[in-house]
Hints:
Chain A is α/β, with parallel strands linked by helices. Helices cover about 40% and strands about 20% of the residues of chain A.
Amino acid sequence: MVSIKEIIDHLNLKVYATGKEASIDKGYTGDLLSLVIGSAPSGALWITVQRHVNIVAVAALKEIPAIIIAQELLPEEDVMKKAEEEGIWLLGSPDDAFTLSGKIFQLLQGGKIPR
Amino acid sequence: MNDLLYSHTYQIQGRDFEHGGEASSDIKEALKRMGINPQVIKRTAIASYEAEMNIIVYTEKGELLLEVYPKMIRVTATDRGPGIEDVELAMKEGYSTAPPEIREMGFGSGMGLPNIKKNADRLLIESHPGKGTKVIFEIDIPNASV
Ligand SMILES: Nc1ncnc2c1ncn2[C@@H]1O[C@H](COP(=O)(O)OP(=O)(O)OP(=O)(O)O)[C@@H](O)[C@H]1O
Ligand SMILES: [Mg+2]
């Protein structure tokens, strides 16, 4: 289990919306919303390049506490607002989804993160 | 036995992606207030979301009717959209007619109806091309505990 705050810290993530305090032990990477709904484990951290407001609805539905938007793609103001309202972390990174997934996978395994 | 404990109709505006998922989120809250089993709530919310998004993506407007009975939850999604030509084909994983601009937002993986099927105990789709679609699904409440 790694806290979201630790993940933000280790990976130097941008914080677009502050969510509820939570610890993570699994993740999911994907951009097709219905696949995320069908396959993401609840409580997982979600890595995506989607930044449309519906990602917040999907996260709420799946009890996903944190979304990381890869490759420095910026969410609109309304997406940040909605995430804040729902208590879901909306985070950002310049890394691509592969790199982000790898780093977080290692972190969840208890390994060190290559910065 | 079949007493209706609660029912509510949620209106859904087609193409309103901004508010996409609000009806199913309201359904989730209503079921929580009723103290329904969390697993049943989760499955109902997921199936409702997929039905809601299909109304938003493919139609002008429609509605979700939530009915809660002692032993099961029924959701009826009704729209007067274009209808589904071949329901069996539409049920196939990966089948989608979503246009490119919709796919760009992450819809159109052709997993919505399969997700409904996976989460519901019973699913019935009635569709008349040119007239509209009705998607009805039921989720059983275990131990008849509400
Ligand atoms: N309410 C509806 N009215 C008209 N056509 C529909 C409706 N619901 C579904 N369809 C048709 O059935 C197809 C499959 O629907 P389904 O929800 O399984 O996948 P999708 O919406 O294309 O993609 P996804 O749900 O994965 O984002 C749709 O592409 C569409 O052609
Ligand atoms: Mg769909």
